[in-house]
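tool_log.txt
---
The assistant was asked to compare two proteins side by side. It first ran the structure predictor on the initial sequence, then on the second. Raw inputs and outputs are pasted verbatim so the downstream comparison step can read them without reformatting.
(1)
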Amino acid sequence: QVQLVESGGGLVQPGGSLRLSCAASGHSFSNYAMGWFRRTPTKERDVVATITWDGAHTYYGDSVKGRFTISRDNVKNTVYLQMNSLKPEDTAVYYCARGKQPGLWYPNSISWYDYWGQGTQVTISS
């Protein structure tokens, strides 16, 4: 059973930072691309960042480029999202998800990521 568990969310003031973690189990983690996605209060779904199975390539949504960094540790079976210079517009539920097929990467295709965690709430407010 594939299981993804996000953690690290919380309430932060504008300009602050958070580091999200996603612990994976039940599959060959190092063979799959991973991604971070978010659902805003208006129910919009956005690609935040994705990363190849080996960490060699990354993709960032335009709204977070230069502020967020995705990384992974294939020994710990964990993917991270470092979020800096946070804005109120970043308020959302953040999800991690696994790519559908091993050894492939579709950087900006939400529908291709098949297993999802339950999400962690990030709220940016002064």
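(2)
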Amino acid sequence: QVHMVESGGGLVQAGDSLRLSCATSGRSFTNYFMGWFRQAPRKEREFVGGITWTGGSTYYADSVKGRFTISRDNAKNTVDLEMNSLKTEDTAVYYCAAGVVFSTRSRDYVYWGQGTQVTVSS
């Protein structure tokens, strides 16, 4: 099974930037769709963005479009989420996930990391 670990979360102020990284091990993630999700307390898990390993395409939720950027390093099997102009509403636990097809639904992803907390203060 694939093991995924997120890192880079922390406490920042609104307007700051933060870079999250998802490191993977086990099976190769080539041909997997990699997604970033987030979940705030008392809220449903929300799709943030995704990236294909071989196609070079990225996808973003409207709420983060223009502020967040997903990148990949296939040699290291990592997927990063660069978050700029952070807002208090970005506060959540951020998860990386992998699936065989692209989807904005969390149920369509089969491998998940443990999550990393991002807290944005005003």
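---
observation on (2): The first strand starts at residue 3 and ends at 7. The mean pLDDT is 92.
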